[in-house]
Design the sequence.
């Protein structure tokens, strides 16, 4: 463990940067946020060499109250922090163009930076006290991003989000205080804090799970997610769905593997893990099933996020090495995919004003690059090779089978988990497939084909399926048709960078996989 | 078997990819040249595959791995893309690329001035990559990756016309394809988890003792069976074929369904292995499915009015022949199955390309319109006739060779004790009945084409034989049905060697 100010600096930098914000010209605010995120990214990268060598960077600030602020960067923190800040930077660049016609620019930027600080605090924390402080900061600050549009719908969704976030935070606070009371420590590098044998342990465990689960959008605490994610501006939706729900998943990982500890969990508390595993499977299935019925693109993506967070939690709950690798890998994969998907959906909305799936048919002809990015990420979401979503699904599935062999659970759950994964892939196909196919190829009507069909019906004696005219919804709905083409490079570059990453890390997943494997190795020596 | 490290498999896979890049690059300026470029890249691919022949003939296999990710920990399965071309992979890969090449040359004229040519060509090449990747894959991970590429890329060919019908057929196609792929993935994951290896040869270790063997086996069979179109997983074929461009159907029916048959060979003979399957009911059930497939396909074909649908059902029946050969579990049976992969690819590609040429020249595709077509398009009708006779199984065409060896294989299986005598007789009986049914539905087409009276008012509507660029690929394929009927040495010797390898 090396003493270093870098973790503290990473967490504080977005806050410090706010001092200079008043001097920034109004139309440069989003540039400023992007630059601050970019510098935060560089700071995290500065920690990379030391941490990959196996060190932990650590700083303790004594408050004199018995609760210290501890900032600490370990491999998992670095990994989640890195992907979060990358997405944050790209999303901020994207917002430069996307938010051009919006309002309350200063407020949006302040709370975006506050959320970034909160996220970094959650990730680079060394003890439960610090974790809680930044967790609450993240909840409150990101709620303002949900409120941003100030439509009645947004206000309602924002209140739901805020209310559930605070309530979850309070439950979390209960567990944290109990942990301090029973063990006298909240140090998160220890593996197992020493709660063994306490009769309070189930209460504490479920407190953590509820607290983090609300943030993660885990069933049945997901109810805020499908209303909150779609109403936020698309740049913020990408962050909410791509990054912030991972704070919850990260917390659940910490609960299982740090606070309780793998050994203790397997020996004494399988009764707690079994419901968790089942909940995660329900989350996967329910999210996908609900997404099928959606008619609005961002809402569909939000439900898809619920399902995907279920994958991650399932990976952690399998208590098997490759399950952890799969779960961590999916944090990475899902951030890339869902970030891109939300940005693409935002680009559609920004350029055409359309958000219903039905109206987006044939969009591929007008916005080819955005649609291409959307298609690649949708395929990755389904779990088709050679995209990054396939790699994480592959490891999650192998983790499920490892779990069968390790015998912590009833082996049948391995098969059930495997089948749930495959079924969910299929459901993903059912809701992403038509969007992608419809975007590129809408039913075509030409004189010749109609002749063919007439001939066909004559000969088969079937009813002639009347070919419908191509979708002309855009013209009908008074959309901004004059500029429905690919957005300018400011908006397009982040989307394309992320899409490239989805492809590249699908073909050569070495770097993230190695990190995930090293993290897993800490808990399974 | 000596393995030679070689970049040839990768080269064969990357030529279509280069073709795609070139097409994207020049399509803006020379949109008319893309069809030709596609045909040329498939020609080069076929050449690259053919250059592997000396090594294969000498009994070697070409192999190359690309490690994507590996971890030092024990028991970790490395993620690699690895390719190994053995005799079976070479054989299926060669016939696939050759048929692809001929179909692409055919498409130069056929797809000219059609909409979205560039898209068609790009996805045709992508599908070819998928097909070659499947047959060259040395491990299950690579196999799955390319199998999915094959499913997804070929979807775009299936819905090329973008009519309502085509879209509906495409939905069934992709849904069944992905479902099959996911079931296949389940089996692959279970296999890897049990044996700790993804290599196609080594992955089967330990499966024999596993209680999950039936699940794994049926997972593979369902996954590959959907692609092969074996009964009862054949529904996508008749719904997708009528609306698909004919040159793509020729590829689907002649080549792509063979990826499924190839997968089933690998499943039975190399992944799971004969030892683990002996004395179980798994393969006999598949044999029954194959027999039903033969019968149902032929029976359904009799009632069709659309020639593409008829040929599609005929494929269901013919893929049944191939699966029957594999499930007989006898050296001769396997030989016959592999030879029929080769023969059926040639015959069915000829038939579909003929149907496509007739449609292109005259716009006719229904059987009662084809009466007397032989008078206006004699060459095409002659090719069609040869292929139809071959399909029925008459000598001296190549279909006869497969049928002969299938029947011999069925009796061989009885002799070596794989099956009861009744099964052998049943298989031979089904073959004979199916041949007769083939006669029932191909016979009238051929007869009417030559001797029927044309019902068209004008000469223009009747069409004429197509231009040489369209005619030559069809002629070459039709000649193939005769040449490999009279000189079956090349396919038979390779198939026999493959079968000897698995039966020692």
Sequence:
């Amino acid at each position: 463990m090396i003493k270093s100010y870098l973790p503290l600096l990473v967490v504080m930098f977005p806050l410090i940067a706010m001092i200079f914000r008043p001097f920034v010209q109004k139309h440069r605010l989003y540039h400023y946020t992007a630059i601050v995120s970019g510098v935060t990214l560089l700071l995290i990268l500065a920690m990379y060499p030391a941490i990959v060598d196996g060190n932990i960077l650590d700083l303790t600030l004594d408050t004199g109250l018995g609760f210290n602020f501890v900032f600490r960067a370990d491999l998992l923190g670095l990994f989640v922090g890195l992907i979060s800040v990358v997405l944050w930077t790209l999303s901020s660049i994207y917002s430069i163009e996307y938010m051009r016609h919006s309002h309350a620019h200063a407020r949006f930027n302040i709370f975006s930076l506050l959320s970034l600080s909160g996220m970094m605090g959650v990730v680079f924390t060394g003890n439960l006290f610090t974790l809680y402080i930044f967790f609450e900061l993240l909840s409150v600050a990101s709620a303002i991003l949900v409120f941003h549009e100030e439509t009645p719908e947004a206000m309602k969704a924002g209140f739901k989000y805020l209310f559930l976030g605070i309530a979850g935070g309070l439950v979390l606070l209960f567990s944290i205080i109990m942990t301090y009371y029973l063990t006298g420590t909240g140090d998160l590098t220890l593996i197992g804090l020493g709660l063994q044998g306490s009769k309070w342990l189930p209460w504490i465990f479920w407190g953590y799970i509820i607290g983090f689960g609300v943030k993660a959008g885990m069933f049945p605490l997901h109810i805020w997610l499908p209303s909150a994610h779609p109403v936020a501006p698309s740049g913020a939706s990408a962050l909410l769905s791509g990054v912030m729900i991972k704070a919850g998943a990260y917390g659940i990982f910490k609960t299982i593997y740090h606070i309780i500890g793998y050994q203790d969990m397997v020996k004494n508390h399988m009764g707690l893990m079994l419901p968790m595993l089942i909940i995660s499977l329900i989350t996967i299935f329910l999210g996908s099933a609900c997404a099928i019925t959606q008619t609005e693109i961002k809402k569909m993506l939000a439900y898809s996020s619920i399902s995907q967070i279920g994958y991650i939690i399932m990976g952690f709950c399998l208590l098997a090495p490759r399950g952890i690798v799969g779960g961590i890998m999916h944090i990475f994969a899902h951030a890339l995919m869902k970030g891109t998907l939300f940005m693409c959906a935002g680009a559609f909305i920004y350029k055409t004003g359309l958000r219903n799936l039905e109206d987006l048919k044939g969009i591929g002809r007008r916005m080819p690059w955005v649609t291409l990015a959307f298609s690649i990420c949708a395929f990755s979401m389904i779990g088709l090779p050679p995209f990054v979503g396939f790699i994480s699904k592959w490891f999650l599935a192998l983790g499920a089978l490892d779990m069968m062999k390790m015998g912590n659970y009833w082996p049948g759950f391995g098969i059930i988990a495997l089948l749930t994964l495959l079924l969910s892939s299929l459901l993903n196909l059912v809701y992403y497939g038509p969007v992608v196919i419809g975007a590129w190829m809408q039913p075509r009507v030409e004189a010749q084909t109609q002749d063919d069909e007439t001939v066909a019906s004559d000969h088969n004696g079937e009813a002639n399926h009347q070919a419908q005219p191509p979708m002309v919804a855009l013209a009908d709905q008074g959309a901004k048709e004059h500029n429905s083409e690919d957005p300018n490079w400011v908006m397009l570059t982040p989307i394309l960078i992320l899409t490239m990453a989805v492809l590249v890390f699908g073909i050569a997943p070495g770097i993230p996989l190695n990190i995930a494997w090293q993290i897993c190795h800490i808990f399974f020596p | 078997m000596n393995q030679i490290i070689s970049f040839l498999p990768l080269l064969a896979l990357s030529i279509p990819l280069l073709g795609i890049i070139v097409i994207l690059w020049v399509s803006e300026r020379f949109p008319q040249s893309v069809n030709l470029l596609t045909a040329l890249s498939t020609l080069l691919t076929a050449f690259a595959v053919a250059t592997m022949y000396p090594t294969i003939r000498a009994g070697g296999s070409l192999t190359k791995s690309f490690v994507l990710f590996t971890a030092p920990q024990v028991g970790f399965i490395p993620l690699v893309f690895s390719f190994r071309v053995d005799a079976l992979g070479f054989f299926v890969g060669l016939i696939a690329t050759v048929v692809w090449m001929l179909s692409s040359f055919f498409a130069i004229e056929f797809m000219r001035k059609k909409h979205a040519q560039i898209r068609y060509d790009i996805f045709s090449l992508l599908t070819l990559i998928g097909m070659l990747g499947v047959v060259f894959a040395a491990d299950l991970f690579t196999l799955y990756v390319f199998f999915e590429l094959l499913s997804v890329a070929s979807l775009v060919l299936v819905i090329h016309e973008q009519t309502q019908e085509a879209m509906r057929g495409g939905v069934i196609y992709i849904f069944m394809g992905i479902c099959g792929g996911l079931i296949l993935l389940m089996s692959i994951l279970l296999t890897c988890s049990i044996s700790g290896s993804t290599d196609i040869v080594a992955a089967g270790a330990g499966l024999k003792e596993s209680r999950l063997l039936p699940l794994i086996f049926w997972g593979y069979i369902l996954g590959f069976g959907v692609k092969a179109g074996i009964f009862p997983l054949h529904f996508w074929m008749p719904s997708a074929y009528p609306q698909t461009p004919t040159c793509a159907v020729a590829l689907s029916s002649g080549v792509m369904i063979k990826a499924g048959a190839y997968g089933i060979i690998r499943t039975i003979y190399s992944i799971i292995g004969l030892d683990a399957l002996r004395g179980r009911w798994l393969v006999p059930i598949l044999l029954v499915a194959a027999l039903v497939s033969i019968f149902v396909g032929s029976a359904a074909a009799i009632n069709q009015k659309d020639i593409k649908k008829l040929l599609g059902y005929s494929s269901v029946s013919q893929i049944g022949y191939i699966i029957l050969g594999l499930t007989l579990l006898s050296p001769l049976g396997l030989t016959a199955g592999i030879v029929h992969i080769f023969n059926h690819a040639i015959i069915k590609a000829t038939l579909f390309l003929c149907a496509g040429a007739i449609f292109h020249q005259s716009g006719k595709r229904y059987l009662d319109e084809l009466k007397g077509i032989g008078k206006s398009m004699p060459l095409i009708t002659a090719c069609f006739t040869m292929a139809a006779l071959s399909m029925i199984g008459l000598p001296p065409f190549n279909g006869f060779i497969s049928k002969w060896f299938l029947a011999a294989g069925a009796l061989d299986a009885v002799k070596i004790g794989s099956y009861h005598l009744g099964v052998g007789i049943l298989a031979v009986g089904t073959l004979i009945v199916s041949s007769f049914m083939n006669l029932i539905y191909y016979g009238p087409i051929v007869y009417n084409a030559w001797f029927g009276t044309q019902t068209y008012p004008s000469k223009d509507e009747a069409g004429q034989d197509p231009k040489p660029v369209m005619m030559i690929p069809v002629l070459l394929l039709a000649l193939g049905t005769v040449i490999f009927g009279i000189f079956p040495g090349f396919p038979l010797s390779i198939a026999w060697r493959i079968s000897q390898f698995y039966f020692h």
